[in-house]
Amino acid sequence: MTTHASAAERRAGQAGAVTDQLPPPLTPVDEDWARALCVVAHPDDMEFGGAAAVARWTGQGKTVVYCMVTSGEAGIDGLDPERARAVREAEQVESARIVGVPVVDFLRLPDGVLEYGVELRRAIAGVVRRHRPEIVITGNFHDTWGGRNLNQSDHIATGRATLDAVRDAGNRWVFREQVEQDGLEPWGGVRAVWALGSPLSTHGVDTTATFADGVESLRAHQAYIDGLGWENFDAEEFLEGMSRPTGNRLGVAHGVALEVIPMGWGG
Ligand SMILES: [Zn+2]
Questions:
Q1: 262 CA → ligand 1 middle, Å
Q2: H helices of the chain, where?
Q3: Which terminus of the chain faces fewer neighbouring Cβ atoms within 10 Å, N or C?
Q4: What is the 80 CA–ligand 1 centroid distance (Å)?
């Protein structure tokens, strides 16, 4: 189950996080890389804020791959998970295609009840070893979105496991069966993990030119959005509620915020 905060809640949370002072400016993120892997808990996690940045990067000729840890099968109240899985995977593949992402890996771990631990790290490390990215992007893994809006358990487990799995992937003696039996090589080339929408974001991406692509990518999740039952939900308005304040912090019209966690020391 995905249970994202509503637009109003999230905006209120962001406002609450900055109390009575203006939010600090964001630094444009490093774009000197060629391959990124996005690891998120649910179909739609990239589209609720990050897809416009992905569209920018694929437009620059970069390769971006998505990995969905669950298929979001518990996210539609009126639809049995066995049927919802297929619907949501198809929507995710289409939403990825819209922003130039041709590959979506589905790990098919259980939606709503993900547990941080060795097995989750193992699954994500295998994906990192297979795709060999320079940048790994995940979602906000902190307890809240800022203010008092609680984050969701799967997001927290996925982000924390991703941080660890990036290190695991570089060590041939961790999850060694992947190296010795599955034909994967260790991969220690990830320079940083970026957490989308983190309340501790210090960096950002100018998405002014690709904002509309991000809107289209979110609209591809129509069955999910219909299942939420939010009255008068408008993808463009929702995304603007996040992208315009972030853009202000970058000095542009629309932006996506990121927390940058360097891998290795001294980064
Ligand atoms: Zn989610």
A1: 24
A2: 7-18, 51-59, 81-98, 118-131, 153-169, 176-180, 211-219, 222-228, 235-250
A3: C
A4: 18
